Amino acid sequence: MALPPDYHMHTPLCHHASGEPIDYARRALEVGLTEIGFSDHSPMMRDDFDDWRMFNSQLDEYVEKVRRAQREFPQLTIRLALEVDYLPGHEDWIRDLAARHPWDYFIGSVHYVSEDWAIDNPNKLSEWKKRDSFEVWTIYFDLLTRAAETGLFEIIGHADLPKKFGHRPTGDCTPLYERFLTAAKRHNCAIELNTAGLRKDCKEIYPSRQILELAFEKNVPITFGSDAHAPGEVGMNFAEAIQLARVVGYKECWKLAARKREMVRF
Question: Could you tell me the pTM of the whole model?
Fold first, then answer.
């Protein structure tokens, strides 16, 4: 049976990835993928918001890079997408981005629990010492729930990102997970099995098995993503992600095109 699509990968325009889309496409074919999607970090309203995303003026360049890969590798299905940060009050900006090009899907992600703290930024690790971890997880999942409720995203990215550096909640987060997953189901939003967690301090796929089991109970759909920031990471650890999904009970995932969903077996 074919591997599921790898719907989460980046480009050098985000300033922390290497390799052009054609390099990722070539690697995808080498590892046996038949479909991939580029979902680099979208621009923010201000180019100086942070230093790990493309500038607003580079959006067309990004699209052309993906289009070139599509032209050079017609035997591989290549989707055009964005990973879009959700911040309250940015909804109109996200709608503006959505109108600019014929995207196949948007991944909605929460990195910021305040305007100046991206919880996965290694340069901001000291911020964790100032906060109770359960407080951070509570804020994070509230924002993730609000992101799902906007209806602006097909996929919610790395759903338990706060664990990246090994910070685990000091309290029971089950009610937070339940609320988020209920919102995802209600608004027809998938969660991704993101294998990048296996390459981080937490050494665990995003999300945890507990969250994935709750998602399966609520019939929340899934996608798969390597979160590749280099060609060698394309499709990485998909065997483990597929195994986790199957153990929990999943047999199908979404394929996405022109912001429409299709359920396929993996």
Answer: 0.98
